[in-house]
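Journal club prep, notes for RB
We'll compare a predicted complex against what the paper describes. Inputs for the NDP case:
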Amino acid sequence: MEKRNLAILGSTGSVGTQALEVVRSFPERFDISVLTANNNYETLIAQALEFRPMAVVILQNDLYSPVEEALSGTGIQVLSGADALSEVVELEQINVVLNAIVGSAGLKPTINAIQKGKDIALANKETLVVAGELVMGLANQHGVKILPVDSEHSAIFQCLVGESNPIEKIYLTASGGPFRGKNRDELLFVTKDQALKHPNWSMGAKITIDSASLMNKGLEVIEAKWLFGLSPEQIDVIIHPQSIIHSIVQFEDGSMKAQMGLPDMKLPIQYALTYPKRYANNYPRFDFMAHKELTFERPDMETFHNLKLAYQALREGGNRPCVLNAANEIAVEAFLRGEVSFLGMSEIIEETLCQIKNVDNPNLSDYMACDEESRLVARNLVLSSAY
Ligand code: NDP
């Protein structure tokens, strides 16, 4: 494989830092052109000094000066602001943009990168939740690959290599999170610290809360629809608490392919960055005797309402998934600040979906307007202190 030149958006986060670990293991395979962060300028500076990109972007304008000062004399261009984040992916030498930003802020940079013909390694599932049809249409039009980083979607993607046969259905596996098996009464007073204790994965705060509420799986169902061209009825969710089987494809003859491995995000990240090749690494290997039991359960959509809301939004289409995502982002932020309860998050999302009118066939500006309006409604619901 020729050396690949990467832009890593969200390089200071959980996926971003693990992606840089992968890059560190294969210095002969990758060059880094761009690194970006929102607030965490100290980590961004350290990463820039180690990986020597052409440019870094710090989203917050007031953090430009410390980054500029620390990197002066290095030749690394320092930029700030949302426009710079979208535009920096245009640098000619970039082959692959790894989008590891959290939230719908990832949408515009993804679209811009696709329009400039860059392949996308996509961790930022919110991009496809908000505007899946638009993004996949553009990817087709510009002949760029969307390489999934999410472990479940990477699993499906890996099961499909070499297959031209139609898919009957897929099973997305879910660990069930820290509250698996609990009923609504038991969830009434759960705290942020309890919700942040994921049993199997160490991830950023937002996706960890989404995992506890099963919204993460709901977002992944929507992401899978767009990545693999499936109907909602072809996408099933199965709870698999050990997180060893990362997802399963079932073909029309009833045969199933599953992709397995230890829960380690470096594996799907590496595959997205080296696809279609696999490179030898020395990460720990699976030991059957240490995992003698792999178990499965049905998800409890009555307790974990978010998964049901996500399926509903997907079936209704239009701007519904965009509303769901925006309201969820606001609800999760409020839960992390201790302003709403765990179960209150679903109620805010449901109420926001009721208050925002449906728009069929939205274009990019419809999505942006819908995202903003949904956030406003959800913020007001948070302020009402009823949740
Ligand atoms: P983190 O919160 O750990 O990191 C997010 C990154 O995005 C950080 O670099 C952060 O900068 C930056 N960022 C945050 N807000 C903005 C913004 N508004 N504009 C631009 N940049 C921003 O998230 P994760 O790494 O956990 O998740 C990233 C994405 O990957 C999410 O979409 C998540 O669902 C998905 N994903 C994550 C997995 C994981 O294991 N973590 C697994 C599968 C998917 P700063 O550090 O300065 O705040």
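Talking point for the session: The longest strand covers residues 30-37.
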